[in-house]
Amino acid sequence: MRRLLQHVFLLAFSLVACNTKPTAPMENNFEPLVKPVLKERPRNIILMIGDGMGLTQITAGMYRNGNKLQLEEFPIVGLHKPYSSSNLITDSAAGATAFSAGVKTYNGAIAVKPDSVPVPTILEQAHEAGLATGMVTTSTIVHATPAAFLAHNVSRNNFQQIALDYASSGVDLLIGGGRKYFYKRTDRRNLIQEMKEENYTVSDFHVEAFEEAVLDFDKKFVYFTAETDPKTVRQGREYLPGASRAAANFLDKRSEKGFFLMIEGAQIDWGGHNNNSEYIITEMLDFDATIGNILKFAEEDGETLVIVTADHETGGYSINPGSTMEKIIAGFTSDYHTATLIPVFAYGPGSELFGGTYENTAIYDKMKEAFGL
Ligand code: MG
Ligand code: ZN
Q: Is residue 4 part of a domain?
């Protein structure tokens, strides 16, 4: 009987499969057997993206850290399929657009569909619903991952245009590098000045360390951590854990209705591109310390959904024979991204939606459902 049912199921599945328009790569849209049900709505969502953070990056960080990570505190774990509409191997722009806007698009696209039409993002929808919004990253703030939440562009490389979208977005908080794209511009506009006139406090690393910056809750806030790319952890970068916690506290005060915050550990990916295990591990542990700070906030707050995932794996990173917990013998199969499934960790109200295996675009759908937007 069970065998028969299996055959019926397979037959039904192949009929569905025949009707699916052949696109490359093919999207699998069949419904899960058990659809998770939302039990409780979160007031706030904090989405944390470890760029290039595959399972091996997590594993290497865990062993180096005495066989323990903050990530282990998360009760719900799922898997997402990271491919883009144009390529089995996604880039960070298409990967972030899947999370921010729920569409598979081509590599390089910033919150636009494959036909270049802009799609609304979860950050914009939260802003329109009266929630506070913000982003913190260890790359430039206009880099592909954050850009896909707050800008719309046919190419991730149009940094000046992306900055222009930010300046008129009404976003409550931005912390990251890339200050130069806001004032060294071909259109000669000074977006820093313009944002100050739009009720922003704008500060940067030339003026004061992040820890010394005063966050005035009556104003919106921008802090630039570098003119271009921020330093690596090994060069002394320290701001991500503290700035992320400060960002959550700040946004919590900015709106009665709640907030959406995206936090990115951007340079785990850069360690992968460099095939540099130490670079990966130090950035991974900085991101995990940030996760610890955010979990503390969410635990005290009780109304915050925290999601941690990656856009893709980078490097085809492996831990090879001869390795110990203290010393990893690393292998790499590539200096680019790979197509392996990516873990998703969830904590707090709404986390029940995130178990299972699903497309990367489902992360947007689940956040939207959790918010009730
Ligand atoms: Mg990134
Ligand atoms: Zn990359």
A: no
Give the Å distance between the CA of 51 and the centre of ligand 1: 5
Supply the residues annotated as catalytic: 92
**Residues surrounding ion ligand 2 at CB below 5 Å:** 269
pLDDT value at 15 more than 90: no
Number of domains in the chain: 1
pLDDT at residue 1, as a whole number: 44
Distance 139 CA to ligand 2 centre (A): 11
Q: How far apart are CA 109 and CA 88, in angstroms?
A: 15
pLDDT the model gives residue 9: 46
Residue 169 lies in a domain: no
**Residue 126 belongs to what domain range?**
46-53+64-164+259-371
Q: 94, 359 in Cβ contact below 8 A?
A: no
Taking the C-alpha atoms of residue 57 and residue 277, their distance in angstroms, rounded to an integer, is: 9
pTM of the shown model? 0.93
The CATH number covering residue 309 comes to: 3.40.720.10
